[in-house]
Amino acid sequence: MHQPTAVASLSDHALLAHVEALVARERRATAELIASLCELDERRLYLGVGCSSLFAYCTEVLHLSEHAAYGRIEAARCARKFPRILERLADGSLTLTAISLLAPVMTEENAGVLLDRARHTSKREVEHLVAEVRPLPAVAATVRKLPQSPRLPHAVSDALLPPQPAGEPLARTAPHVSQPATIRPLTPEIYKVQFTLSREGYEHLRRAQDLLRHSLPSGDAGRIFERALSVLVCELERRKHAVTERPRTERPANGHGRHIPAAVKRKVWRRDGGRCAFVGTRGRCTSRSLLEYHHVIPFAEGGDTSAANLQLRCRAHNQHEARLWFEAELGLDRVDARRAPSPSATPVAPVARSP
Ligand SMILES: [Zn+2]
Fold it and tell me: What is the pLDDT at residue 185?
């Protein structure tokens, strides 16, 4: 390997050859990485490491940027369906960007045509190709008005169109796709959020502005959404996890039924910080969504519903542990179990209750 100082001493010709060799090596490494991520995803090895998803593994353990992680995961999942893209990545005739653009529109029927036409093309050319398959991508209504029934160019081959349900005419009008909301930090403390509001939502906003006029004369929409979200989060936490500042008096629970009393849910939720408590080989899971209550000692083995025997789990880790428990119970020596051993030394449980 050439060091920076050694590179500086290379002739122009040698430097060009050196850079080309490096790029070729990088492409082969990328193709190998995509193939390996594909296999890692299949085995779901990220669960045992302590991540709830392949994306979390790529960003938190591999320290890839969100964009890099997204592109590689997209390519890995596309490669599972269309393995030939790995060869194209390795020989440099297809880029990760091209794959991420093509992946949403590729089907068994059009994959061959699309991959051939996309070879050694620029991003813009691939975007044109995608527009042929899926015409008129979503455009914000405030920019310009689209024609009612745009038609595909006659030159478009039917082989490029997504498959249609049997008996239905070939759809040649553009599907309506709304723009996803965008959230962008402006500083570490403030964010720019952009999304589409229905007429009903807009009317609610106007009504809230009127009702808050005394305390919020400016009617600032951001401040109103902050207050509305605060109320919504409190309500959801109360409903799903019984989180409240003024708990009602409950009958003492015997801890033997499957029902988890509200007071126990509250205690577990606060103790675990509203976050999955699964600890993998590389640390604790960061997931805060789809949380469930997990029995450390399984209910089937006499584990009770006390706070000491309950922990929060994201759905992925809850299912992961339940699967391992069942396999251990049944004495299965499955390939999956050997590939993804649980790093947790604590007993795992099959029983968890959704909030
Ligand atoms: Zn988790």
Answer: 60
Consecutive 10-residue averages of pLDDT for the chain (355 residues): 76 90 94 94 94 94 94 92 92 91 89 91 82 58 40 39 41 48 64 79 88 87 89 86 71 67 92 95 90 90 91 95 86 52 42 42
Residue 194 CA to ligand 1 center (angstroms) comes to 29
Q: What's the CA-to-centroid distance between 30 and ligand 1, angstroms?
A: 28
Q: Are 325 and 349 in contact (CB under 8 A)?
A: yes
Ligand 1 centroid to Cα of residue 152, in Å, is 45
Ligand 1 center from residue 278 Cα (angstroms): 6
> How far does residue 340's CA lie from ligand 1's centre (Å)?
15
The DSSP code for 10 is: S
For residues 117 and 129, is the Cβ–Cβ distance under 8 A?
Answer: yes
Q: How far is the CA of 61 from the centre of ligand 1 (A)?
A: 14
**In angstroms, what is the span from residue 4 Cα to ligand 1's centroid?**
43
Q: CA–CA separation, 37 vs 97, rounded Å? A: 17
Distance from Cα 46 to the centre of ligand 1, integer Å: 10
DSSP E strands, 167-317: 182-185, 191-194, 279-280, 283-284, 291-295, 310-314
How close is the Cα of 296 to the center of ligand 1, in Å? Answer: 14
pLDDT of residue 278: 96
Instruction: Give the orientation angle of helix 12-43 with respect to helix 66-81, to 10 degrees.
Output: 70
Pairwise CA distance, residues 120 & 178, whole Å: 31
Return all residues near 7 (Cβ < 8 A) that are at least 6 apart: 15, 18
Distance (angstroms) between ligand 1 centre and the Cα of 106 equals 32
**To 10 degrees, the CA torsion angle through 243, 254, 311, 233?**
-10
For the chain, give me the number of helices (H) and strands (E)? 14, 7
Q: So where are the chain's domains?
A: 12-136+154-160, 182-241, 262-353
Residue 295 token pair: 């029995």
Query: What is d(CA 278, CA 283) in angstroms, rounded to the nearest whole number?
Result: 8
pTM, to two decimals: 0.58
User: What spacing in Å lies between the alpha carbon of 277 and ligand 1's midpoint?
Assistant: 7
d(CA 12, CA 1): 17
